[in-house]
Amino acid sequence: MSAEAVYRTTLALRARLQRALVAAGDPNAGNPGAVFVGPLDDQDAAGASLILFLYRMVPSPSLRNNDHLVPDANPNRPVIVYENSLPLDLYYMITVGTLPGDSEETLLRVLGFAIRELNDWPDLVGAPVAQETVRVTMEPLTTEEISRLWALFPTANYRTTVAYLASPVWIDPAALPARAGAVLHDEPKFGSKVANAEAA
Length: 200
Prior knowledge:
This protein has four helices and eight strands, in the order H-E-E-E-E-E-H-E-E-H-E-H. The chain has helices spanning 5-23, 104-120, 143-150, 189-199, and strands spanning 35-37, 50-59, 68-70, 80-82, 86-96, 123-124, 134-138, 161-171. The strands form two sheets. It has a six-stranded mixed beta sheet with strand order 1-2-5-8-7-6. Strands 3-4 form a two-stranded antiparallel sheet. Helix 1 crosses helix 2 (104-120). It is globular and about 55 Å long. The termini are far apart.
C-alpha cells in the first residue's frame, strides 16, 4: 500500500465495526460518530457506542526482510516487487463507549456483535485496503497490560476493552520499482562465421 496504509486499514476496521452496530440493532448505528476513532478521553468520543484506538505500531518481525509482492491489476503482467517496503503490525483497542443515561450493559451486547463480526470475517480485503489482505485477530492482554494502557487516560473511567492485531500493513516506497525487461536470445555470431566458412 501507499503511505495511506495505516489510514486505510483504520477506516476499513471502523467500517466493520459499524456493520456490527447495524447487526446489533444499535439505535446509534446511523450516527457517523457511532464508532469513534481516537483516544478514549477525547471529548468527541462522548456518545459513541464503540471507540477504536490505535495504541501501538511496530515493524512486523516475521516479514521485516521480505519483499512485498503486489499483483498487477492486469493479470497478464507480472507482479510488482517492492524491495524496501515496511511491513507493520497495528495494535488496536476496541472499547465500549458511554451513552448518556445508560449503563455499560447495553454496549456489552454491541461489543459482542463486534467480536463476532471480526471473528467471522477476519480479513480486510478489496478496494478499502488497496486490493490487499490485512488479517485482524484478537490480541490477548493480561490484566497488567490493560492497566498500563488505561494509565494513558487518567481522566477516563475504565470500561470493557478488547485488543486486536491488524497485519500485515505494508508501506511501500513512493517510486514504483522498474519492471524487468524480457530476455532476448540472439543467434551467436560465432555460429554464423562457422557456417560461412563451411559454405566457402
